[in-house]
Design goal:
This protein is an alpha+beta fold. The chain has 19 helices and 36 strands. The longest helix is centred in the C-terminal third of the chain and has 22 residues.
Length: 745
């Protein structure tokens, strides 16, 4: 069934702004949201001379350089997202706090897909740790190779080739941004090493029962992550839990410990003794539902540290780790020789088939300031109880420096072992990894290995932390090229498009449609809006170029301006601020061409907004709108109801409530003069003389980051006689208006 065309779906209006309730909520809470989109006008040159051109007083040769466009794109893309500003694979993890202040870890895919309203962590301009809200949740298609960078010590992350990671520059003594595809082995990647604050949990309520979160309970969870599984009555529905240990006489202490904890918690259990293993079974629904709720993962490859453990005292974290290492770990104390001298090597090792577990354990150890190294490998084909196990990936973790082992010594003692050190200059307390400190909250690890992955991942993900003003839509970032110039005339247009897309922007373009075949990047666009002036200007639209890309959304716009005798446009009266390369518009709009245009968009099923020349006195605009309505009524009588062409009068207000302006928080405008302005609407108000004026300037391109990070974003006051976004501004005013007894809405 064909979807009905509704005008509000195809042009800016307050209805669209209501789709961004998360942004409005941030404003209501006194914060500053990231803009929904950014308008960019790459150049002033245009191959048409329209009678209604709102930028008739621009300097014709003015255009942004490709460096300026890339700089604006990169700054908007990177503002404040220090340390978390990656487009990364969906299985990478991020830490955050939920609305109750509970510290959690989840995959970035889940956070983005569910738009989790939370606080996450980053570094500020002084390289100090900050906690701030996640303001943007972004996913976009993977269009290029994924790069896995592994640091000295084994930390790793997988990102797209063109995405930037933060590096430490030894020469400049500062953090710099660099694309992963441009990095090299030895480059130093910045890593946050600060532990976020949290409220310690001492009890956990589930199904109307409160459980005491003591050391025994935490150790039980550690045992379950290592040796536990769910038993099933039917597929997908667990009805009990099982702890599987080795022979009883070999692991008696662990088995007895688990039984004792279960007994103290008043859970019934059965112990099954076999020649090669020992099972502890609990069939009570209460316990398995509790464990499922705590989310420790189902299946060996999906195990993880439950979030509750990140929110207990350090002593209880150590208890959890002791249970985990008892089941999945081992401790070795050996004597090595170096330069003909003996020295001790004490190593606590964890080995698992779950990459998720390795990442969450690593984060847990970071909260305890326990240094560790990470490793990956492949298990060879092997046999257990005459079962053949095929090759499989494993992930392991080592803790070896003396101070770190002391912090988690229960993990060693539970195995009946202890550290010992032979007096040697090689047996010191210093960690072996060469890591640079960056202030008190971060450090830098050198890259050890860079791999290009043959990965079938179809989406990658971003989040934005804090007051970062990323320019994005609901599911990604939008970059909107618009304005009086024809953007496709910019010699570097395709290069700018490729760059914007590579860093995660979704892209739309407004074009007069005369040069569609000249653009080579249509596959990177989300939508195109065609200016419907070909019938008056004498050119046709090559729709085949656009329809070769089925995902490209095509719409159109027509500015009605048949009443030119009431216009003061320089292209009509010949009075420009700068008349270099200027010429009088010789193209008069004709009603017959207007009707031909309507027939064409209806036949080709292209949603088309019919607008009016707003750069006139309000009363004149109202009269023009009545003429348009009469002409549309005539056309409807001729061919029947219009399904695709519509009059864009639903967001027009002849009078404004006040001069409040919030559009720089929604849709700022990068102009051809290298400056950023409040919005792309001010030039539509007649008093602004067909140009962007100084009072609407926010900053220049070089100052974008400083403006948006250092208090420049506040309510502004602009008394434009015509404001295309008047309803949006009034909506924000209403959101911010304080009311009482809101329960009685």
């Amino acid at each position: 069934m064909e979807k009905e065309v509704v005008g509000q779906s195809f042009t800016s209006n307050h209805v669209k702004l209501l789709k961004h309730l998360d942004k409005l909520k941030i404003m209501q809470d006194g914060g500053t949201p990231s803009p929904v989109m950014v308008h960019m006008s790459p150049c002033n040159p245009c191959n048409l001379t329209c009678s209604f051109c709102c930028f008739a007083n621009r300097a014709m040769k003015e255009m942004l350089t490709i460096e300026q466009m890339k700089s604006a794109i990169d700054q908007f893309r990177a503002l404040g997202a220090t340390g978390l500003e990656f487009s990364i694979k969906g299985d990478e993890i991020i830490p955050y706090k939920d609305s109750n202040g509970m510290l959690k870890i989840d995959t970035i895919k889940n956070v983005v897909d569910n738009k989790i309203d939370a606080t996450s962590f980053s570094l500020d301009a002084s390289n100090e740790f900050i906690e701030d809200r996640i303001t943007d949740w972004i996913s976009h298609p993977q269009k290029e190779p994924l790069y896995k960078i592994t640091l000295v010590g084994g930390r790793n992350i997988t990102v797209t080739k063109s995405h930037s990671v933060l590096f430490w520059d030894d020469k400049e003594n500062k953090i710099i941004k660099k694309k992963v595809g441009e990095s090299s082995v030895g480059d130093k990647v910045v890593v946050i090493n600060k532990t976020p604050s949290y409220s310690e949990i001492t009890e956990y309520e589930f199904n109307s029962k409160k459980y005491q979160i003591n050391g025994d309970f935490c150790r039980l969870l550690g045992f379950f992550v290592a040796e536990g599984s769910y038993s099933y009555q039917r597929e997908g529905v667990p009805h009990g839990i099982v702890f599987t240990f080795g022979k009883y006489k070999e692991e008696k202490n662990y088995i007895d410990d688990v039984c004792s904890i279960l007994k103290d918690m008043e859970f019934n259990y059965n112990v099954d003794y076999f020649d090669h293993k020992t099972n502890i079974r609990v069939s009570q629904k209460e316990l398995h539902e509790l464990f499922v709720n705590l989310d420790m993962g189902i299946g060996a490859r999906n195990k993880r540290v439950p979030d509750i453990i990140f929110n207990v005292s350090d002593e209880k974290k150590e208890e959890f780790l002791s249970g985990l290492f008892a089941g999945d770990g081992c401790f070795r104390n050996t004597i090595y020789k170096k330069k003909n001298k003996d020295y001790s090597r004490n190593v606590l090792n964890l080995k698992t088939s779950s990459n998720y577990l390795l990442k969450t354990v690593s984060y847990l150890l970071d909260t305890l300031s326990v240094r560790h190294t990470l490793h990956e490998g492949v298990n060879r084909i092997r046999y257990i109880d005459e079962r053949r196990l095929e090759e499989s990936e494993y992930y392991s973790l080592d803790v070896s420096d003396k101070n770190s082992l002391k912090k988690i010594e229960k993990c060693i003692k539970i195995q009946g072992k202890e550290t010992s050190y032979k007096d040697s200059k090689f047996s010191n307390n210093k960690p072996h990894l060469k890591i640079d400190s960056i202030g008190k909250d971060a450090c830098a690890y050198p890259i050890k290995k860079i791999e290009i992955l043959d990965d079938e991942e179809t989406e990658v993900f971003d989040i934005t932390v804090g007051n970062t003003h990323k320019f994005q839509g609901s599911f990604g970032i939008f970059c909107h090229n618009t304005g009086g110039g024809e953007p496709t005339l910019h010699p570097k247009f395709d290069e700018a498009v490729r760059h914007a897309h590579s860093v995660g922007f979704k892209i739309g373009v407004c074009t007069n449609g005369s040069r569609l075949s000249k653009i080579k990047t249509w596959d990177l666009f989300s939508w195109v809006r065609l200016g419907m002036y070909g019938w008056d200007e004498g050119y046709e639209y090559d729709l085949d170029v656009l329809r070769a890309h089925p995902e490209l959304r095509i719409s159109a716009a027509y500015v009605w301006d048949m009443n030119t005798e009431t216009s003061s446009n320089p292209n009509i009266i010949g009075k420009w601020a700068d008349d270099v390369n200027r010429k009088i518009s010789k193209t008069d709009q004709k009603k017959e061409n207007f009707f031909k245009m309507i027939d064409w968009v209806e036949e080709n099923k292209i949603p088309t907004r019919i607008a009016f020349n707003a750069i006139k006195p309000v009363e004149t605009v109202k009269k023009d709108m009545e003429i348009i309505r009469e002409q549309l009524k005539e056309k409807i009588q001729e061919r029947g109801a219009l399904k695709y062409a519509f009059l864009s009068d639903f967001n027009y207000k002849g009078e404004r409530r006040n001069d409040h302006c919030y559009m720089h928080m929604v849709k700022p405008f990068v102009f051809t003069d290298g400056n950023v302005y409040v919005c792309p609407s001010s030039e539509l108000s007649e008093e602004n003389s067909y140009n962007m004026n100084e009072e609407f300037k926010l900053c220049d391109i070089d100052g974008i980051t400083d403006f948006y990070k250092n208090g420049g974003v506040t309510r502004r006051h602009h008394a434009c006689k015509f404001c295309k976004y008047a309803m949006q501004n009034e909506l924000v005013d209403d959101i911010l208006f304080e009311t009482e007894n809101n329960e009685f809405a």
